[in-house]
Specification:
The chain has about 190 residues and is an alpha/beta fold. It has a single domain (about 5-190), classed as Alpha-Beta Complex (Maf protein). Helix content is about 30%, strand content about 25%. It has six helices and seven strands, in the order βαβαββαββαβαα. It has helices spanning about 15-20, 45-60, 85-95, 130-140, 165-170, 175-185; strands at about 5-10, 25-30, 65-75, 80, 100-110, 115-125, 160-165. Strands 1, 2, 3, 4, 5, 6 and 7 form a seven-stranded mixed beta sheet that branches. It is globular, with a radius of gyration of 17 Å. It starts with 5 loop residues before the first strand and ends in a 10-residue tail after the last helix. The mean pLDDT is about 95. It binds thymidine-5'-triphosphate. Thymidine-5'-triphosphate binds near residues 15 and 71. One of its GO terms (molecular function) is dTTP diphosphatase activity.
Length: about 190
């Protein structure tokens, strides 16, 4: 597989870094999918649809294999997306404080003929957060473009007592499932022949 055959349809620098960990050459392409949950659509179906739409938009006009991905939080059945503003972030953090929420990350891979996808669920346990640290966290600029308004890989990691699931999935790309899907399309991580 040459460099021009594998594409990552993502604007996220986190996803780029995570995919690079697998050691396979790839090119980044943009995606302009509108993210809006349909009426009655479950969080699980929504995140998987977005990952598939990103991959399928990315393969248009290209030949090769395209990866798309999406991450969102879920608390009491309600989807936690990127915060609209400080008030929205504060509302999320107050609800997340001292308890667990779920992070769902979907990854989809397509070659333009078929699309395969997986959804990975990780439970994230937050310690209690004080009003002053929440107010400070907003000023760092870190939460603004993150689902659930925090980054486990940044100072937001100081809110996380523990997780049950995949750290990489919380950051934006589950590596086990990504490697598994790539192998379906003949792209082998670690050059394994299995
Ligand atoms: C919970 C959490 C999310 N995130 C990020 C991962 C995603 O980049 C982002 C969720 O937004 P997404 O809409 O999944 O992705 P994106 O808009 O950043 O990139 P693209 O659609 O182009 O692929 O939140 C973290 O970096 N750390 C975390 O701990």
């Amino acid at each position: 597989m040459t460099k021009s055959n594998l594409f990552l349809a993502s604007a996220s620098p986190r996803r780029r870094e995570l995919l690079a960990l697998l050691g396979i050459p790839f090119e980044v392409v943009s995606n302009d999918i509108v993210e809006r949950q349909a009426k009655g659509e479950s969080a699980y179906a929504y995140v998987e649809r977005l990952a598939r739409e990103k991959a399928e938009a990315g393969i248009q006009g290209r030949s090769g294999v395209v990866i798309g991905s999406d991450t969102l939080g879920v608390l009491d059945g309600v989807v936690l997306e990127k915060p609209r503003d400080k008030e929205d972030a504060l509302r999320m953090w107050r609800a997340m404080s001292g308890r667990s929420h779920e992070i769902l990350t979907a990854v989809a891979v397509t070659d333009g003929t078929s699309t395969e996808s997986r959804v990975v669920l990780t439970e994230v346990f937050f310690r209690r957060l004080s009003e002053s640290e929440m107010a400070y966290y907003w000023t760092t600029g870190e939460p603004q473009d993150k689902a659930g308004a925090y980054a486990i890989q940044g100072v937001g990691g100081a809110f996380v007592e523990r997780i049950n699931g995949s750290y990489h999935a919380v950051v934006g790309l589950p590596l086990v499932e990504t490697a598994e899907l790539l192998s379906i399309y003949g792209i082998r991580v670690l050059n394994s022949d299995e």
